[in-house]
Design brief:
With 499 residues, the chain is an all-alpha fold. The protein folds into two domains: 1-216, no CATH class; 260-468, no CATH class. Helix content is 87%, strand content 0%. The chain is built from 20 helices and no strands. It has helices spanning 2-20, 23-44, 47-60, 64-91, 93-100, 103-131, 135-159, 165-190, 202-236, 241-259, 261-278, 284-320, 324-333, 337-352, 356-376, 378-381, 385-409, 415-443, 446-467, 473-498.
Length: 499
């Protein structure tokens, strides 16, 4: 829930940015952000997962002291890589400006350089806290960073310190990353972590993190490739470059942040999933139960948002962004959240099962389908090619992941049956949401009409889940009691460890 709150602040921040930037600036910002994410992926997006798995294994074997050596080794690796990457950015100014197509984009990257180094440091701390299931500490650090990022950006924009609000965004992020990294180090030391170096720990970290780094790096490269390629293809079909960038800004800066909300919730779940599944690998019954629960929870989250995006996409974007095109795109693209969410949760399950190499191969295969779709579809559907390409890629990745999970565990999630059931439950909810909004829009302001319609949609869907016994009070009561019991055990262990 803390992670979701952080992402909600991030979404509100995106609304603010859409108001202070032109659609052209928004397009350049999102294109630059795609390149920035490539760098962040390279310097340490996968090592936290490796550290969390090492921490979980060492905790099970009562060898927690080895984790300190792994964390220190990973810090040396990631900081060294971050410094090399930042140096490369500085000497590759001309190629970067050519790729972005705007000098402003390079200025944004320069403002983000400090955040690259801070992120390389914090990502290792995050992995340690993650492995010891101290999710609250991780969420607190990210929450504080988000608040600071917003505050500093608003101050810079209000005082008009920089030539463009886009540079203010990058500078604010760097400052916030620095403060949150310092807080993360304090939490690391407070939770028993130490900085100790010992030879022989680099190899394990590189071996485990390299495949996942490949997956995420390849994915991060795909995003800017699509962002650069799509406007070029649209321009070749008679659309001006300015309009193409503007359309890209509307999609990536307005519609896609809304479509990524369900993925945010599933991402918060994945933070819990990895150490839990990794510690249950030798218990097949418990492992299959956990996989089933994670998949079912993810599907419920996805279908809660589906009718909201389909019916209320236009009203939401018209009210929030004052942009009708973003709403139309959101409603049209709502279906992609289903394959996106399933591919995300199944990929995390594979990673937790120590199948990072397979996950890498599957991601490459699915990304090839995305690139083929991007080349073929723009001449037929224009900017909507982005939606189709993401959807096709996610479907391919989901099918490959599910097949591998079944082979490894012998457990079949029966996702097709689950999707059919939830889709049938969604049909009356879509009609009820549409009717509710049409009625409330006559007597209420847009904000309250949208808000009440969303509440009716969510409560109606949850009520149907209980009616058809997909959810039941007994299982929820058992979950809460187990959660409280496990929390007490963890607190007791922490106190004993401190003593």
């Amino acid at each position: 829930m803390f992670s979701v709150l952080t992402r909600c602040l991030g979404f509100l921040y995106k609304i603010y940015l859409s108001r202070v930037m032109s659609t052209m600036e928004l397009g350049v910002y999102n294109l630059t952000l795609s390149i920035y994410m490539v760098v962040i992926t390279l310097v340490g997006s996968s090592i936290p997962l490796t550290i969390s798995k090492i921490a979980t294994t060492n905790k099970t074997k009562n060898k927690e002291f080895n984790t300190n050596y792994s964390v220190t080794s990973s810090l040396i690796l990631s900081i060294g890589l971050a410094l090399i990457t930042c140096f490369c950015i500085l000497i590759l100014k001309t190629p970067l400006i050519a790729i972005i197509g705007n000098n402003l984009g390079f200025q944004i990257i320069i403002s983000l350089i400090p955040s690259i180094i801070f992120t390389a440091i914090y990502s290792q701390i995050r992995g340690y806290l993650w492995g010891y299931e101290n999710y609250f500490a991780v969420s607190m650090v990210e929450f504080i960073e988000q608040i600071l990022r917003i505050i500093f950006c608003m101050i810079f924009v209000t005082l008009n310190i920089f030539s463009s609000p886009v540079i203010a965004v990058g500078t604010a992020l760097s400052i916030a990353c620095g403060i949150s990294t310092l807080y993360g180090i304090i939490l690391y030391l407070k939770n028993g972590g130490k900085f100790k170096f010992k030879k022989g720990y680099f190899k394990e970290i590189i071996r485990s993190s390299a495949p996942l780094t490949g997956v995420r790096l390849f994915g991060s490269l795909i995003n800017p490739t699509v962002s650069v390629l799509l406007p070029i293809l649209l321009t070749s079909y008679g659309i001006s470059k300015e309009i193409a960038l503007s359309e890209l800004g509307i999609i990536t800066g307005m519609s896609m942040p809304l479509l990524s909300i369900p993925s945010t919730i599933i991402g918060a779940l994945c933070m819990v999933l990895v150490p839990r599944i990794n510690s249950s690998i030798n218990n097949n019954e418990n492992l299959n139960t956990q996989i089933s629960n994670y998949i079912q929870f993810s599907i419920i989250c996805l279908f809660i948002f589906l009718p909201i995006f389909i019916i209320l996409g236009v009203p939401i974007c018209s009210y929030v962004f004052e942009n009708l095109s973003a709403g139309l795109y959101l409603s049209f693209s709502a279906w992609i959240i289903i394959p996106m969410g399933i591919s995300q949760i199944t990929s995390s399950i594979l990673n937790a099962l120590n199948q990072e190499q397979k996950s890498f191969i599957y991601y490459i295969i699915s990304s090839l389908f995305m690139l083929i779709a991007i080349f073929i579809l723009p001449q037929f559907v224009g900017i909507k090619a982005m939606t189709y390409s993401i959807g096709i890629s996610s479907i391919v990745l989901s099918l490959l992941n599910i097949k591998k999970i079944k082979k490894l565990t012998g457990f079949s999630p029966k996702i097709i049956n689950l999707l059919i059931v939830h889709l049938l439950l969604n049909l009356p909810i879509i009609l009820i949401t549409k009717l509710t909004y049409n009625c409330l829009n006559i007597i209420m302001t847009p904000f309250f009409a949208i808000a009440f319609s969303c509440v009716v949609c969510v409560l109606g869907y949850i009520a149907l889940l209980f009616c058809f016994n997909i959810l039941n009070f007994k299982s929820m009561q058992l979950f809460v009691s187990n959660f409280i019991k496990n929390k007490k055990v963890m607190v007791a262990k922490t106190k004993n460890g401190a003593k």
